[in-house]
Amino acid sequence: MDKIKVLLAEDELALAHIVRESLEEAGFEVVLCANGEAALLKYKEYKPDILALDVMMPKMDGFELARKIREADKTTPIIFLTAKSQPKDVVAGFESGANDYLKKPFSVEELIVRMRVLLSTNRLLALKPSDRLVKEQYQISNLLFNPAKNTLQQGINTWQLTARESEILKLLCKNQHEVLTRKILLDTIWGDDTFFNARSLDVFITKLRRHLAADPNIQIINIRGVGYKLVW
Known about the structure:
Pfam families: Response_reg, Trans_reg_C. The chain is of the alpha/beta class and 232 residues long.
């Protein structure tokens, strides 16, 4: 079986080498870049399965790098590694296209777990028979949601969702017109309901609302202090 290819962009060389060695010991294939510009070039050449990006890098920061990658690639998982952990930084990270956000200092074991979760979600399409995937669709008013392909379709128009957006929308669809608690969402998708992950959920709900705005009949209603309900 081919090794999972990781593009690691980190300008703290001591940390970068520790992370790379640990990932390689865990069976990953790792390419290391020390700045954002080099990482963008290597991304185009290397076609990684997942990217782990520092935010504060010379020449091009992680946010800008993620935005450039997302212009053409909506699905390859991106996880930020950063000491910038204020709510506004978390929001900026997810708005730029990240799937996850790991605060420094972190354990490499936690990084590996988070990467495997992102990769397992991203690889579902290759692990299931195509005819089964086609059937797993949800009609949301006049939008067609395909969680296997991470797409929303309205007539001839198609919008690509991130893997994390698709996970959340799928849970909402399965519980349509019922309140889905924040705790269930957080525990199911992130594994815990910490404040940090709760802020991430808020960002993804906002992004989903923008996608669903193509049909004004669809709403994700916030039940204050409880959770969310998808209605149309």
